[in-house]
Amino acid sequence: MLPRGRPRALGAAALLLLLLLLGFLLFDGRLRRAAALDGDPGAGPGDHNRSDCGPQPPPPPKCELLHVAIVCAGHNSSRDVITLVKSMLFYRKNPLHLHLVTDAVARNILETLFHTWMVPAVRVSFYHADQLKPQVSWIPNKHYSGLYGLMKLVLPSALPAELARVIVLDTDVTFASDISELWALFAHFSDTQAIGLVENQSDWYLGNLWKNHRPWPALGRGFNTGVILLRLDRLRQAGWEQMWRLTARRELLSLPATSLADQDIFNAVIKEHPGLVQRLPCVWNVQLSDHTLAERCYSEASDLKVIHWNSPKKLRVKNKHVEFFRNFYLTFLEYDGNLLRRELFVCPSQPPPGAEQLQQALAQLDEEDPCFEFRQQQLTVHRVHVTFLPHEPPPPRPHDVTLVAQLSMDRLQMLEALCRHWPGPMSLALYLTDAEAQQFLHFVEASPVLAARQDVAYHVVYREGPLYPVNQLRNVALAQALTPYVFLSDIDFLPAYSLYDYLRASIEQLGLGSRRKAALVVPAFETLRYRFSFPHSKVELLALLDAGTLYTFRYHEWPRGHAPTDYARWREAQAPYRVQWAANYEPYVVVPRDCPRYDPRFVGFGWNKVAHIVELDAQARQARQPLLLCPTLQEYELLVLPEAFTIHLPHAPSLDISRFRSSPTYRDCLQALKDEFHQDLSRHHGAAALKYLPALQQPQSPARG
Amino acid sequence: MLPRGRPRALGAAALLLLLLLLGFLLFDGRLRRAAALDGDPGAGPGDHNRSDCGPQPPPPPKCELLHVAIVCAGHNSSRDVITLVKSMLFYRKNPLHLHLVTDAVARNILETLFHTWMVPAVRVSFYHADQLKPQVSWIPNKHYSGLYGLMKLVLPSALPAELARVIVLDTDVTFASDISELWALFAHFSDTQAIGLVENQSDWYLGNLWKNHRPWPALGRGFNTGVILLRLDRLRQAGWEQMWRLTARRELLSLPATSLADQDIFNAVIKEHPGLVQRLPCVWNVQLSDHTLAERCYSEASDLKVIHWNSPKKLRVKNKHVEFFRNFYLTFLEYDGNLLRRELFVCPSQPPPGAEQLQQALAQLDEEDPCFEFRQQQLTVHRVHVTFLPHEPPPPRPHDVTLVAQLSMDRLQMLEALCRHWPGPMSLALYLTDAEAQQFLHFVEASPVLAARQDVAYHVVYREGPLYPVNQLRNVALAQALTPYVFLSDIDFLPAYSLYDYLRASIEQLGLGSRRKAALVVPAFETLRYRFSFPHSKVELLALLDAGTLYTFRYHEWPRGHAPTDYARWREAQAPYRVQWAANYEPYVVVPRDCPRYDPRFVGFGWNKVAHIVELDAQARQARQPLLLCPTLQEYELLVLPEAFTIHLPHAPSLDISRFRSSPTYRDCLQALKDEFHQDLSRHHGAAALKYLPALQQPQSPARG
User: Is A384-697 the same fold as A6-341?
Assistant: First the structure.
């Protein structure tokens, strides 16, 4: 604002003078930096190319689509990429198109994640890393990033031919600013420049780190390839494919292998063709390697833009300011990704797949409906990160069984015991916040028992909403089970030590599969003791039962949930026996993997498992929404196994059961869900569904699931 | 970078041309905005004063100390202020000095919070709102912010005379950018301007909202006072105190009261003295009131700087983009404040009080020590937010008792039952993350039972580190108890319905206080049933005990923890009886509030309560660190009350007890803690401490606390 009462012309003249002065300063800065590029020996990293001494590039046109390419393989890198993407989304103001070059593991994880994340104005394309392997596998490489590190070299041919510009990022960088500012630096490229890079913040390429240290050739300190601006169009025109291969082949005549993967080759090419490179300000790639010189950059910059954890030690790197950078990284690691679903309302965009229908369904809900919370929770699409930790799929075996269960943070302490009791594959859905997912990761890493198990798949379903989405969690775990059979358990139960072997043997002996469809019932018991000696056999179990140390499950509170199992008969049974469905029956069963899914309408406490058993019994023959029945599903006979058992350990009532008990509205809403469930059941099964009507009108089981 | 091989002069000429063009555009923008200030009728909000059309002010000198003033009163505003401060700290790059004008409640909360937060380069000064009240209480005011809203008017006299500039913020604003950019706008003030404000983004002051709507006088749409830049020096010089009082008195001759508190008076003064005001770009106060016109501002701005929730509905305001803004707000609401402890390493600053000693102590720890985690956890200073929710201190009563306990998220479901069993005051420490604290808030708001209780004080201790700091939590809850006596309980226990009354009567009848020091023992029982009918009397309790529905506490696993209570004698007792300390005794007791504190070295599972009872028994007569004994402490006799009882409900083993059981290192570390505890005990009590030696060498209790 110009001061009131002063001639405006004076202000204008002063402003012009200021601009001229500013122009001179900027121009001077450019000259000095040009000198540095030409090899001014006085210029070290941080001494030049800072963000605050260059001309500010114009911001990219509002709403311009920015392209980002990332190579990502395996479980751990997939977690890293998500943290990177969170930091990018936090600051971005433009629509983004992510180009992800992935192996099968990362693709499965990231495809599910982005599909369920539904971030507006983010498009994701996947490229098969396996198909690119032959193009780089001939290069001997010693870097920890392996073959995947080298794939950045082939992006100009791997990415769509019409794509002219892309920002290429390593998975171990974190944004501290808006990526459009980085994109805007393309405007600084001369007509012939094609690669924008930040200088290395270490002395590696100077070749004096130890005696006979022979790095690959580079201009001075060389450049770091954790953050690259690529003019793909110009590289293609310039014959990049030939160019880097020629250089690499020639260098490999005298050098045994690359030490820093793609970075060695990029630097060797640039040394030969220095006109290709545009130097970027150091703040766009603050490198926290072990012997980093980054402090020269960040101690003078007013603003850090991108932090690069380019030490194999990552967050455990020794650096006197590492605490600062680590807190920054943890911010995004623990950041609630749901909050990034915010719209770029300035830039109208196509909503992500499914988002529009979801918005419509949510908009139709009545906020005054006393069951509004239930309705909303049922519709919630939770972000899902499958195989959050490294996981080896079990080898294909025709009678193998995966234990399926779900849990939240307050049941983590069950995992070790569960691993001791169940030596086979497990598929577990965990309902966590982003921050809790990190606590969970540390918990597993700190436990030798858990860390040793590669056959347990942990799928993180991110928390959203007030009610525990028990059946949605079960369905995630069930969908990720990879064996032909699944044991549908709950996290508070410990199976008999022998159960895994016994189930496989039973499945084989009973000739299940093509010939016969059965749900095998595993009788459930419970102890009320904090510590007790787990029975090693049915004989021991029966002794504990007689001694009053064990009870049949819910014997005191809700016997009808398991009464049809017929415990008296089980005591004596020597062979599997068939039992009939009855109202409120909710046994723990082993079924084929393609069994009906759980009905996701049951959220919070109550009826979630009962409804599933009704579905099993309803002999569904058709797949119909929303019950998600499998088209080939046959009648399930319920067979109780004479030597199988599982025991429930004591715990405090869940928050949901407490709400159920204290809130009449909660109970009314559950009844409404049950009514709707039965309407759907009638619609699908006709008169046969009448059988289940009395069950739906009975009072509620006090058990959680 | 200039293109290589081209004459540099050409580039320089182009650059100059660009700058001249830029200068013209900027100048043009200024003229247009000046026209708007002069009352150009075509200019509405958003049509001018956007951040991207004005000249960028120079950033403030690096490391300049920025001053911020906030008026804050009560429990709810204190929570708001913390979210505001988190957003400010997240983006800031400068040292800050916060000037907080607070009532006694907010001061207690914020003083504790900032003291334990220990954020580098943040200084906090407090000013008594009560002392400022007389200066504004004569003004009739209808705004929801009450008297406190008006206090912004008296800041020029209330803040230190040497303070020349300050940014004044409402508690309901959220930063989306670095506050130094706002501070830099001081540079735009003319020599006479003293108040920087953003125009109102509503039509309120146009006076046409309804028939006979008579707002206070204002320039056009007037200004919003949620964000103010104040040149205190100039206001003092200009006689601000007289100025606003004169204007207010004159307007109040014809208007009944202020509708928008200070904002009405600021606007009336500015209408009279328009030369005082400097218009700030609209993005510095994006106002989300009910009928906001803010979209005109934010839909064209590339950057939002400050969001202002200036509707009484706050986050529930109706606005088509509210989801975007709400996610932004939730980001900081749920942000882990511990991460903001990051240093401004570019600006060296005095470490916060205690931080240096803490750093030294932490630096002396040996990372290879198997008990490193324990040592680190003991030293951790947790952020503490006392009285997180509205709380009424109990009226002073000589025999009143506060129930003291601690919990984490997994025990929230105990709170309602506890409230039903204990009608008296409670002081509860909750160990939560920032995000969990919000879940907890919603939990209480959704529960009629909890929402009705103003005598339960909830103190949030923010999570940090892997071990549950049980005794630090107990000490926080104990320090905040306001009655002469405390019942030191655990969250899994429900006291007899009559216990609160019975304890107060017993304290009176036994003549405790000056004459006699006693620890009153409340015998502990347990049920292993999820649901059971809580006994209404000792007779009913004994019947359940005989029926095997109840047991004495830890009867199966650890009888010695409570054996000295002598349950057999209690069955028959008609009067309180004295018992003797014995090894591992850990009864639940009622003691004076000034009892010894718990030993914070016991973190995680084990010995935390036993050590406290040893301390009580050790008849400490001197206060010494680190045991924090009270100087006046007399011998405590242990008196068991014949009608008192409390019952433990079942729950799953805690993570800590699971670790204790599975990890030999954990057990060894606990033994090391016990040894050190005994060494300290010997140092303080000499030979008397020998009595406790055998207890310290016995195996460990399996109970959590």
Answer: yes
Task: Give chain A positions within 8 Å (CB) of B26.
Answer: 15
Strands annotated E in A389-464: 401-408, 426-432, 456-462
The nearest alpha carbon in chain B to A557 belongs to: B531
Judge: B193–A93 Cβ closer than 8 Å, yes or no.
Answer: no
A343/B412 Cβ within 8 A: no
How far is it, in rounded angstroms, from Cα A511 to Cα A519?
13
Phi-psi region of B314 (alpha: psi -120 to 50; beta: other; left: phi over 0): left
Q: B530 — contact with chain A (CB < 8 Å)?
A: yes
A51 touching B (Cβ < 8 Å): no
Q: Are A646 and A498 in contact (CB under 8 A)?
A: no
β-bridge partners, B385: B460
The CATH architecture to which A384-697 belongs is Alpha-Beta Complex (3.90)
A112-124 pLDDT, tens per residue? 999 999 999 999 9
* B110 DSSP assignment: H
Q: For residue B621, give every residue at least 6 positions away whose Cβ sits within 8 Å of its Cβ, in sequence order, or none.
A: B633, B634
Q: Identify the residue with better confidence: B311 or A443.
A: A443
**Where do the structural domains in chain B lie, given as residue ranges?**
6-341, 384-697
Give the fold, CATH level 3, of A6-341.
Spore Coat Polysaccharide Biosynthesis Protein SpsA; Chain A (3.90.550)
Residue B635, pLDDT score: 60
pLDDT at A23 over 50: no
Query: Is the bond preceding A626 in cis, omega lying within 30 degrees of 0?
Result: yes
Q: Does A351 touch chain B (CB under 8 A)?
A: no
| In contact, A262 and A156? CB cutoff 8 Å | no
What separation, in Å, do the N-terminal and C-terminal C-alpha atoms of chain A show? 66
Mean pLDDT of A545-553: 91
Which chain A residue is nearest to residue B337, measuring alpha carbons? A331
For residue B80, the number of C-alpha atoms closer than 13 Å in the C-beta half-sphere is 19
CB within 8 Å: B2 and A435:
no
Q: Answer whether B423's CB lies under 8 Å from B497's CB.
A: no
CA distance A1 to chain B (A): 6
0.80 exceeded by pTM = yes
pLDDT of residue A7: 44
Of residues A204 and A321, more confidently modeled: A204
Find the DSSP H helices in A447-587.
448-451, 470-479, 499-509, 538-547, 567-572
Closest residue of chain A to B301, computed from CA coordinates: A346
Nearest residue in chain A measured CA to CA from B191: A3
Interface of B with A in 443-472 (CB under 8 A): 443, 446-447, 449, 466
Check residue A37 and give its pLDDT: 32
Residues of chain B with pLDDT under 50: 1-54, 620-634, 700-705
Sequence-distant (≥ 6) Cβ neighbours of residue B496 within 8 angstroms: B421, B502, B535, B541, B643, B644, B645, B646, B647
Could you give the ipTM of this predicted complex? 0.77
Q: Is A583 on the interface with B (CB under 8 A)?
A: no
Is B556 within 8 Å of A547 (Cβ atoms)?
A: no
How high is the pLDDT of residue B348? 79
pLDDT digits 0-9 by tens, A654-685: 777 777 777 788 888 888 888 888 888 888 87
Interface check B238 vs A, CB under 8 A: no
With an 8 Å Cβ cutoff, is B330 touching chain A? yes
Among A58-67, A609-618, A651-660, B512-521, where is mean pLDDT lowest? A651-660
| Span A466-495, average pLDDT | 95
Q: What are phi and psi of B392, to 5 degrees?
A: -105, 120
A515 vs B336 pLDDT, higher one: B336
Query: If phi over 0 gives left and psi between -120 and 50 gives alpha, with beta otherwise, what is residue A62?
Result: beta
